[in-house]
Predict the 3D structure of the following.
Amino acid sequence: MQTFTLGGDLTVNRLGFGAMRLTGKGTWGPPADRDECLRVLRRAVELGVNFIDTADSYGPYISEELIREALHPYPDGLVIATKAGLLRTGPDQWPVLGFPPYLRQECEMSLRRLGVDCIDLFQLHRIDTKFPLEDQVGELAALQSEGKIRHIGLSEVTVEQLEAAQQTATIVSVQNMYNLTARTAESLLDKATDEGIAFIPWFPLAAGPLAAPDGPLQRIAADHDATPSQLALAWLLKRSPAMLPIPGTSRVAHLEENVAAAEIELSDDEFETLSNAGSAG
Ligand SMILES: NC(=O)c1ccc[n+]([C@@H]2O[C@H](COP(=O)([O-])OP(=O)(O)OC[C@H]3O[C@@H](n4cnc5c(N)ncnc54)[C@H](OP(=O)(O)O)[C@@H]3O)[C@@H](O)[C@H]2O)c1
């Protein structure tokens, strides 16, 4: 599997795992099948996944708690990225809160829940316009200088917001919605690629109509003896060497299918066909 080095010192396999789906409906409460979710996490690591993305708000807390239960003490080289900056007031509700002392509190709580002394990658889940950006990123920089955070990342940002944040701290990753059919973050992706910043596309499997019978994904998928979901991931991996997809699932069978996508090599022509089909879809 190809690798990417986060922040110059944490090398991970480029196909990671997103742990948001290890929760109940609306990313709220426990998952329907808790034991299967624990198996998913353990199997991910067995298959070579060593980058797991989570957040305090997934559950809330449940995703981080399951990661600890399934994997602590963590194997060497496992990088766990978490986030703070969104409150949870109910299923599917995500009010933004970037009050700096709250970000600090959530970092402290994630350290406790994950059972670590330092969080490998701590991401600001959303920039809160009610507070100065430099205060929000500045709080993360303070936590970093105290040794509680190794690296800082951002989520759902524009190029301008990334550049503003870079005035306050070194940003090693950005996480925006991006997939074959949702590409509004192209300019951010290009900037991340140029600067060696990881681009973590969330919702990577939303292939939508491209997964339809006789669609371009199906056709190329058949050539590779692959599924449309695997092709959507293979397309992402080819799009940029800074791309770190984190497909999420609560089922071992889907996990195995997704991880296998890292072995698919698309030709340049196939990549173009998919790119064109995705932008038309
Ligand atoms: N930064 C942010 O604001 C933000 C927002 C959303 C998500 N995220 C992160 O991004 C990660 C991925 O995003 P996501 O979970 O929304 O989207 P996704 O990974 O594109 O899709 C996950 C969905 O696809 C299904 N699925 C997974 N593998 C499949 C397969 N091989 N075949 C068929 N269905 C499959 C899953 O259901 P099953 O459980 O049934 O497999 C789940 O419902 C999250 O886990 C989270 O870590 C970040």
Observations:
- The beta strands are 3-6, 10-13, 17-18, 51-53, 79-84, 119-124, 149-155, 171-177, 198-202.
- The CA atoms of residues 146 and 229 lie 41 Å apart.
- The pocket of NAP is lined by residues 18-21, 53, 155-156, 175, 202-206, 229, 246-251, 254, 257-258 (CB under 6 Å).
